[in-house]
């Protein structure tokens, strides 16, 4: 009866239509993005404003019911879905989708957590501004989820992660209180930086309901190039030269292995590479500038010519039209989709110092081939900021299920290599329920203990997204 009473109270708070308790209708909310895990929930609750979020959280605290905040549910580490106990509610923020304010003079935008990233980017462009966070899932991921996971994406090299693109937050605390920290300030030394505490906490410390985002002048010109090279070390040398030639205009520097792109052309044959896929690695780089297009193009051509003459790159294609640029980007953005069509694999989202990027790939590739001969590496990522999607597929003619039985062994090789290079086993996807145990093994006891103390201080009942981030 208590369970029925709780659901009825939720219906009174947010409206009957916004509480789902039918197990069949809950499936899209309790199943992870990769469709490998389905949890259970008491209900899926969709508040329509911050006050309703606070009322639901307060009710859950009173009845000791765990809360799993959820945005677009595009995460890859089981961070936004409940476990199989059936004790939690999913708190969907999708109805919180208002853009509250665009302050052009201050270069800020205040948006609610359920806003789709693409919609935020479009609103910025309509105001002749740029919001630079760029992800493959931008058509479905939400700002609240981006901030909760401290998303990175392809423009981190120039603009930083979601944390660096956020000035202020509105948060519902585990007590059901509303913290209005929607500051539009670049300088604010009035105490602990609570914003940074909640960004990247994956909903374990509170529910982000709105945010103040940084906007930037809209670039006048955008130039994209697709480059072939031999080794990750050559890619690192090329990055150094590109930064010297282009400075802050260098927005994107994406490394892709040949096999990654071969998967794209196999499963999306209409996507044609601008260069033959006959070299081991490729780089997609982009310059965005406020200077005239001819000047940017001339600088780009000079950079590419110098790199070819110095035998750092083998070949290059410079996009001449917007359509050609989009075609190059489509190759990069469809790697994950192509890999999913190819079959199951062991995914890693890691970070190492950029200076050690090439060493990590070469040494870890060698170790994996030694222990798992013929394994196929889908290696792609953001070389400019030192983060990498480093995925391991089964050798040909080895069934995926058989190969995945060795997942823990594969993870150990990869994560030990990351640790030796003072890196992190999660760069931008977060830890969720998938990686929190592994993470504890690579962090010091002091660091884990401090995080546990913060969690206990803010959420002593462990009701906010339990089983995520911390062991």
TrEMBL record:
The keyword DNA damage does not apply. Residues 37-218 form the FAD-binding PCMH-type domain. It holds the Pfam family FAD_binding_4. Keywords: FAD, Flavoprotein. InterPro entries: FAD-bd_oxidored_4_C, FAD-bd_PCMH, FAD-bd_PCMH-like_sf, FAD-bd_PCMH_sub1, FAD-bd_PCMH_sub2, FAD-linked_Oxase-like_C, FAD-oxidored/transferase_4, Oxid_FAD_bind_N. Belongs to the FAD-binding oxidoreductase/transferase type 4 family. This is FAD-binding oxidoreductase. It comes from Oxalobacter aliiformigenes. The lineage of its organism: Bacteria, Pseudomonadati, Pseudomonadota, Betaproteobacteria, Burkholderiales.
């Amino acid at each position: 009866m208590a369970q029925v009473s709780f659901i009825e109270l939720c219906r009174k708070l947010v409206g009957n239509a916004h509480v789902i308790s039918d197990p069949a209708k809950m499936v899209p909310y309790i199943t992870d993005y990769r469709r490998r895990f389905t949890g259970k929930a008491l209900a899926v609750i969709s508040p329509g404003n911050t006050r309703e979020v606070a009322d639901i959280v307060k009710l859950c605290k009173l009845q000791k019911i765990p809360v799993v905040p959820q945005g677009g549910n595009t995460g890859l580490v089981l961070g936004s879905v409940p476990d199989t106990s059936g004790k939690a509610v999913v708190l969907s923020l999708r109805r919180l989708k208002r853009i509250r304010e665009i302050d052009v003079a201050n270069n800020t935008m205040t948006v609610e957590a359920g806003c789709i990233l693409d919609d935020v980017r479009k609103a910025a462009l309509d105001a002749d501004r740029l919001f630079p966070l760029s992800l493959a899932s931008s058509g479905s991921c939400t700002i609240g989820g981006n901030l909760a996971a401290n998303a990175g994406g392809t423009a981190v090299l120039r603009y930083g992660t979601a944390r660096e693109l956020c000035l202020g937050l509105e948060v519902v605390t585990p007590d059901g209180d509303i913290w209005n920290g929607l500051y539009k300030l670049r300088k604010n030394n009035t105490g602990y930086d609570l914003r940074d505490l909640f960004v990247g906490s994956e909903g374990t410390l509170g529910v982000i309901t709105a945010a103040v985002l940084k906007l930037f002048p809209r670039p006048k010109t955008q130039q994209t190039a697709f480059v072939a090279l031999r080794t990750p070390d050559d890619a690192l040398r090329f990055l150094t030269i590109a930064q010297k030639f282009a400075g802050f205009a260098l927005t994107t520097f994406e490394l892709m292995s040949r096999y990654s792109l071969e998967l794209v052309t196999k499963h999306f044959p209409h996507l044609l590479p601008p260069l033959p896929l006959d070299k081991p690695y490729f780089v997609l780089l982009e310059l965005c500038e406020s200077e005239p297009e001819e000047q940017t193009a001339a600088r780009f051509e000079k950079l590419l010519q110098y790199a070819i003459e110095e035998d750092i790159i083998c070949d290059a294609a410079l996009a001449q039209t917007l359509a050609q640029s989009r075609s190059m980007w489509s190759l990069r953005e469809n790697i994950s989709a192509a890999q999913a069509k190819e079959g199951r694999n062991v995914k890693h989202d890691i970070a190492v110092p950029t200076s050690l990027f090439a060493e990590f790939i070469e040494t870890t590739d060698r170790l994996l081939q030694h222990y798992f001969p013929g394994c196929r590496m889908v290696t792609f990522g953001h070389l400019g900021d030192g983060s990498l999607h480093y995925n391991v597929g089964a050798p040909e003619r080895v069934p995926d299920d058989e190969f995945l039985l060795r997942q823990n062994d594969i993870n150990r090789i990869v994560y030990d290599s990351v640790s030796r290079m003072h890196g992190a086993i999660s760069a931008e996807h977060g830890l969720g329920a998938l990686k929190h145990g592994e993470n504890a093994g690579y962090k010091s006891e002091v660091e884990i203990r401090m995080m546990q103390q913060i969690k206990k201080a803010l959420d002593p009942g462990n009701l906010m997204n339990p089983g995520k981030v911390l062991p």
